[in-house]
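new request in #modeling-help
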Amino acid sequence: MVEQPFTLWHYDGESGLRRTPRLIADDAGFTLVDERGSDGPIGWDALVARGTSGGEAVYGLKERPGWRLGLGGAIPEEIARRLPQPERYGGFIDRIGLVRASAIFLAIAATVVFAVMSAPRWIAPHVPPSFEKKLGDAIVGDFGGRFCNGPGGQAALDALTRQLNPKRLPLEVRVAKVPMVNAVALPGGKIVIFDQLLKEANSADEVAGVLGHEIGHVQNRDVMQALLRQAGLSVILGGMSGDAGGYFNALLSATYSREAERAADDASIAAMKRAQISPAATAGFFARLGVMEKKLGQASVALNYLSSHPLSGDRERLFADSAARNAQYRPALTRDQWEALVDICSNDPDVKDDMGWLGR
Amino acid sequence: MHEQDSAFAFEGNWREFAPIALTNLLLTIVTLGFYRFWATTRERRYLWSQTRFIDDRLEWTGTGKELFVGFVLVVGLLLAPLLFIQFGLQAMILRGYAAAAIIITLGIYVFFLYLYGLARFRALRYRLSRSWWRGIRGGSDDQGFGYGWSSVWKQAVGFLAAGLMIPWAMCSLWNERWGKMSFGGYEFSADADFGKIMWRYILCYAAPFIVLFGGLIAMIPVMMTMGTGDGDPGAGAMVTVFAFIAAIYLIFPLIILAYYAAFMREAVGSLRLTTLDFEFTARTKDWIKLFLGNIGLVVVTLGIGIAFLGYRNWSFFVRHMEAGGEIDVAALTQSITRTPGQGEGLLDAFDVGAI
């Protein structure tokens, strides 16, 4: 291949006029000379490589934006060896090489993800209960006046809670008038049962399994963990493109981990066993919800509980199998207590029941 | 000045671009996305350097660091309101301050709308200030704060008039935005006329009604079969319903695209820089080809093709750009506008294009 003759062009950064000066080089620097005058001397070390343009190497000056020198063809050796190298991937990566840099980044990324995923487990137990309680109060308040106070209802609920709370955690369990089948554990030992769940349940024993599960989350401090995990993830995934990040985030934080769900179920079953309440009833409740799900569709808002607590045959079996055949079970609540609990909202004339804000 | 048929030409090729695209993808993945600012910069440096305008190539001088700083600033700016919407809002409503919560939320949305306008302006200004041609760059002396408000009220007017004034809002904002930009010592000007694209828009506007009406008419035979009770209406009904859904998913994006193509031709066609007149020649079918090609590329390469979308979009854009008239390069002097310090983080946050 015949080498192209050496070509040189220049813009001074002040006008758009293309020049073709002569370049006079020495060890320290160079001077550009044309019929209009000369520019220089300019030190070689002042040159910044700006990549290539149409096969020609382009150089600029740090202090003079727009000043450009383009060199093409066979660059004379005395000039070529003094020219700086252009950057490729960015400073740090160019110095250590692409492969090594990728390996380092990968290691850092894995460490960061691991730390963020596991940090909540270590931090959550050290969050002071008083702070968590304040946080819970701030989030829940009086639930917009939707807490129900029908006569005898709260007393019955407290009686049920006492049986399922062997560790005597400071709990605050309330029923809210919301037409959804759901129960949630919130920071600060607050548990809210939506009254539609009570209506769908056939007995206090069925509610006991669900309540025991939420108490399990409180006991294991899962709520604080979930909050911390969500906060941490939104920070690291902020670096990713909005869409993928948001999707991931929702995926990872909307629900507790499967292990946490399982642990809460185990806690629920253990508590029921101690209180001599049959877990078989809860299994029956799950089975009925499963049938409703098939009928109403998974996305049904009314069956909110299922989106945060996915039903599976395993879960139902877990409760069913832990019912001991020859154990002496007794009803979780008396008939009167259960009736007061089911009607806790319909017997309360003051409760608000508009739910526009929940329709999101 | 030159005998080429268009003043703009894209002279890159994808084999040259592939090493850039693939290493960008790799580094972006292993850094959990943080490399993307530097990736964008590398990509633009290549694309600009392969773009010829009249007789010389463009040069991109933006840096990854600028984009990163822009991003950090935006996170700071948006974090508080977003946190409020996420947590504070619910707490306020639960505590019975619903009215106050709604007012604050509305305020935050207006603030976001303002930021959106500001973002578009500043991104354009940033890009022009980092784009060089013949050692000269573009820019703007305006910070865009006024434009942000224009963007809020013009878009509000556009939507309030049952959406019929949207073409006016788009054209008027385009003209305002470009009217404040310059390249070297020359100012841009734009006088896009919404009247010229109104027919397209009305078609776009009426499309839902037309489709709905067409759907209803198509249902008549089905209803009649069901009414008489003979024959099996199942198949006919299913076909009609599927055709109806397909129509919605195919026709609506097409009509919106048809409007957008007309808007871009009018908007770019109205753009001037001193004696230069710009033109954008992409018709609706060109846009469709671009989008179908993009989708096909990503699907066939199982997602790796994402790394090439920037290349495809840029080359599409340049191939359809034209300019007429002459520019006196000796009189083209350096821009004296202030160069913004940080990149287009704000725009990045809203995920829209700058032009």
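bot summary: Chain B is about 65% helix and 10% strand.
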